[in-house]
What does this fold into?
Amino acid sequence: MAPQPTARDRLLDAAEDLAATQGVSAPVDAILQRARVSPATLYAHFGNKEGLITEALRRRLARWDTTWQECVDEAPSPEEKLLAVFTALGRHRHALTPSRWCVFLGVAAETPHPGPDLGDTLAADTRLLLDRLEDLAAPLVGAQQAPLLARRLVLIYTGVLGMILRGTDVDTATAEGRHLAGMTLHAVVGPAAPGATLRLMR
Amino acid sequence: MAPQPTARDRLLDAAEDLAATQGVSAPVDAILQRARVSPATLYAHFGNKEGLITEALRRRLARWDTTWQECVDEAPSPEEKLLAVFTALGRHRHALTPSRWCVFLGVAAETPHPGPDLGDTLAADTRLLLDRLEDLAAPLVGAQQAPLLARRLVLIYTGVLGMILRGTDVDTATAEGRHLAGMTLHAVVGPAAPGATLRLMR
DNA sequence: GTCTATACAAAGATAGAC
DNA sequence: GTCTATCTTTGTATAGAC
It folds into this structure.
């Protein structure tokens, strides 16, 4: 165990924290100060600012991936596994520095012309959402309907993130998103009678 | 009719266009070039960059307000009036310079510490959405349920905007948002039998 | 009201020593 | 690998003339 993280790790931590709280337009100098590292060290490790941001986002995406998967694994039923993305959102935000809203969407919004590496990393976030939700949806609604449901759930999930940017309390937005997601799932499975249990396909 | 708009108007146009396409971090110089105006003129009229952006957003919000209201007025039924926000989104984007996603959310994302005037203008966008949707929802679901439904519709609408940032085609995202919104409305009104017509309250 | 010219500050990035 | 010191570019804003 190293009580003193390397300069590289301190840079990644600082870049992620600042991107989360201030946005990526936060000056390099602020990152350097927080990481207690000199400019030359940053450029030696990452080439330039975008390289550092990209690396920090890759690491954050991997952590989000893990957190989300854990929540899926813990969920008892297929339906709750599908809705676990909302549980994961809370846990993810609790574990890391709470961001102003979504760091990936935030960087996307602040970066009109991302380089290839950064662009790929941002796209990977959306890809992960669509792919995993489709996988989790398939047992519930069948492979045919799964992509459609996944797209709608990503829309709702993205709406939750947007509401946070609009100033809505995180828990409130998450609860409403989860509710909408549940409704959407039931609508795709087939209109159930009021109060009826979810009718699973197959 | 003035074929030559004033310098002030050219500045507002240029600021709005650039905020829509490049984000507000686009340098003042780019605005000046596009408006064919000198720096001094900008600062004489608006004090500083944020003042110009704020004024441009106020104007854009007023136009959005008008466009949306027109779509509401044209809609034949209470239900379609409620969903007219999605029609308005398309018409708004068609009329103005197509933005990368939502200009208001974009500015909010890029501006961690907005001044009071800019902050108020950004909040006014969310306020308008919540208030008008609540007004339109009341005849359908009653005054009691209207705020809840309005919040959910803003979430969905915001999700549509977020999907555009994620790279989804605007029309696709809008259609899915509208579908979700219709579903949500019916769910709040009360679970209807499959294929049943919307049961209105009162 | 608008322009030319310029001041002033901040930001990204590099050189060269240790 | 890391630091100190510095260079260059860019960006916001102002002074003073017309």
In short: Residues 193-202 of chain B have pLDDT under 50 and may be disordered. The interface with chain A takes residues 21-23, 25, 100-101, 105-106, 108-110, 112, 123, 126, 151-152, 154-163, 165-168, 173, 176-177, 179-180, 183-184, 187, 190-191, 193-194 of chain B (CB under 8 Å).
